[in-house]
């Protein structure tokens, strides 16, 4: 009797284990399998379509050609690094030799001025987009809070925001370029003009979603919470710190995600048009170059641009999870 | 005893697109120190408006409120408010919610350790010391309201204003909260103004029931003194003659003298229907 119950117990246990395993597998397949199928189908359609498109630069690159270019780009990067190291080594030797002959010689160290590789361009683009975005956030979030707190200011500024919001970066760029070259004059500039141009263009375009969302979040705080603050006679600063900021964090972050998406798109366009270093310039240079590999290299850049845009968005989302008090909402 | 809180000749007009709407007209009420006063009336009669004027959240169009010989001009912690839907900051724990109030009111008056003791004392008073460090989303509706009361009590207010504090709770929890409130009142003897539309709650808790006429231009209709001895026991009172008489008086006022005429305001009728169901 007891052995039988024990046996059935064990069977039951195994059964429940089995069902949990099956449901886990079902979930895993949904989370992993379906995207893999999606990507595979896309790659197949891409390679079929690519095969039947003939351009003046040869066949449109398929997935294999693009993958090859990834390898080539990485090798070029490594080769360039080796060259740079060799250059510095030669320079050091030369300087040491001159010092031996003439101890009063003042050593001049010159930076290596080789071609920027794909990896360098990615890095430049990331630094530019983050700088522009952080500058935009530093302006837009305080402004948004102020606008949310004051209906008067909101009414006054809303038309300006609405008009500037849809303006394309391509329209801003010539203005920014001219203004920067007029105002940013220094014999020994800390950062290059082209960097300032891209940065300001990114800032001008990514200000608005953050400003609008922040002011919306602040304006829609539960009136009871505002009343609590009034009864407690919290100072304006404490009010913002203890009530306004935590309450509007979800919308502030929504605005930040929208803005960062805009910033990244704007940056590529700005770099392309203004010949500012970065991924946009890489794409433009390859286009002008017009070799048989150009299109594959541009396609590789497209993939990288998309991937980075996705990662930036995930990064802000992770930041929101970390900041927000409401873990369930984000 | 001299008047502690004097609500004198208050009119309140709200601007609407069709011109000003007169919500209150010549509301007069004198409240003594340590008195527990209930405001009762049909919904839309301006009970909350009176409370908000005393709190300083609204400014009366005419007349004014004098508390302890000072005129009320703005909100302040000496007139703490317990809101109907608890109004706890959802990102702070129970302890931190009370702490925000205590830090603000007793800045430079209490040391850190004294503040901590005071916060814990108030949470203990409302029987919430076991869940001090939980977020509002992790505790029940009744518990949230307890913390809301603790926060108001911790401000050591001269008058405690409660806007339908138990209106959103189920009947059993509400009864429990009423008992707790009586217990606290026995200990602290605060001056309290409470809005309610629960007749039993009004009779059980109050020293004075202020019955308001229907709006627009609502005012104080009748004032009923409740002289039942304290401490009061819910079960014992259920059979008590005086209690039932007082209860009947309030019901008479609400359903005979101030019967709500439904077809005056169509947009309000659906709300008032379920509110009146609540009153019974």
From TrEMBL, chain B:
Keyword annotations of the record: ATP-binding, Cell membrane, Membrane, Nucleotide-binding, Transport
Domain ABC transporter: 5-239
Membrane topology field: Peripheral membrane protein
Predominant localisation class: membrane
Keyword match Nucleotide-binding: yes
Coiled coil regions, renumbered to chain: none
Gene Ontology terms, MF aspect: ATP binding
CDD domains named among the record's database cross-references: ABC_NrtD_SsuB_transporters (cd03293)
Pfam families in the record: ABC_tran
Subcellular location as annotated: Cell membrane
Family label: Belongs to the ABC transporter superfamily.
Protein name: ABC transporter ATP-binding protein
Organism, as annotated: Shewanella electrodiphila
